[in-house]
């Protein structure tokens, strides 16, 4: 009788804990070729782009969270490689800057990247938005159209891995 109760409680525990929605971090299935920039980053335990996008949409301007996630590079600063933009979904992107300008990425970097650092939501001042637009090679007309601060998803990266 005692073992039946224990077995029942064990099965109940597994059902309850197994049905709770848990945040899943992805593990690399097999070693792939990546180039590391900044602090050492491993492929263990990163979030998907979709998970990171959901986290950003729940954040307020006062929130800062540690992150490690994968994304696709959309754009890199063509002057120095001192920032990059990554895709979160069809309509959203995140601006990635590198902690203390301690490292840069190749100006022609493309493809998948794993980013580790801290994420936050910022209201980017017009002056900064124009500066980044100028860096990106936007026309004077495009730059002049920036007249309001932009709400931006941002990451201060301590390290990145770029798939070769």
Automatic annotation (TrEMBL):
> InterPro entries from the xrefs?
DUF4920
Report the superkingdom from the record.
Bacteria
Protein name listed in UniProt: DUF4920 domain-containing protein
Q: Which organism is it from?
A: Sinomicrobium oceani
